[in-house]
Design a protein that fits this description.
Blueprint lengths: L3 H11 L5 H16 L4 H13 L4 H30 L8 E7 L2 E7 L5 E3 L4 E2 L7 E3 L2 E3 L1 H4 L6 E3 H22 L2
Antiparallel strand pairs: 1-2, 2-3, 2-4, 5-6, 6-7
Helix pairs in contact: 1-4, 2-3, 2-4
The protein binds zinc ion.
Length: about 180
């Protein structure tokens, strides 16, 4: 049968702890991180006390295992919070609005923080159909049937796109969508 001490050492090494002093250091670090500097001196006093007491092996094992688990969870929580804080929140669009500018409708996503994204492909106002891009032209599907005159080359379309964005920006700022 494997000695409990050997199991303990294996367990501690698996989470990166190599000594009793290391465990205390680990706990002190986590507690200071968790509670800030207010209790810094008290935490250090308790840590010194712990390092000086002589306890039976089973009590030491139980205490170390519990402390390690607690510390591991606490540190994981703190790291998770730090990671979340560093990342921009990918909040879903606050709302989606179709802006009509001349013969086209532009699908626009407006986010909570005020920024917006306009879909590059617009919609024919007359036929309510998403334009098709083929080669260098954008056209309404009804154009093929000669029911629509929306057929725009890519240079002109790029100009329409930036112009639409400008008008949409103005609308959003004035109406505070
Ligand atoms: Zn059309």
């Amino acid at each position: 049968m494997t000695h409990p001490k050997a199991i303990l050492i294996k367990l501690l090494k698996s989470i990166g702890v190599y000594s009793w002093q290391g465990v205390i250091g680990y706990i002190v670090g986590a507690m200071i991180l968790a509670y800030g500097g207010i209790f810094y001196s008290q935490i250090l006093n308790y840590a010194t006390l712990f390092l000086n007491i002589k306890t039976p092996l089973w009590a030491t094992i139980a205490l170390i295992v519990l402390c390690c688990l607690y510390t591991y969870i606490k540190v994981a929580q703190i790291l998770s919070k730090l990671n979340q804080a560093g990342q921009p929140s990918k909040s879903p669009p606050c709302k989606t609005i179709l802006f009509t500018i001349d013969d086209l409708k532009w699908n626009t996503k407006i986010y909570d923080d005020g920024h917006f994204e306009v879909d590059r492909i617009s919609i024919c106002l007359q036929h309510d159909l998403t334009l098709i891009r083929a080669n260098i032209d954008y056209y309404c599907p009804e154009y093929i049937k000669k029911n629509c005159n929306i057929m725009i080359d890519h240079i002109q379309y790029d100009l329409l796109y930036v112009t639409a964005k400008s008008y949409i920006d103005k609308e959003i700022r004035n109406k505070k969508c």
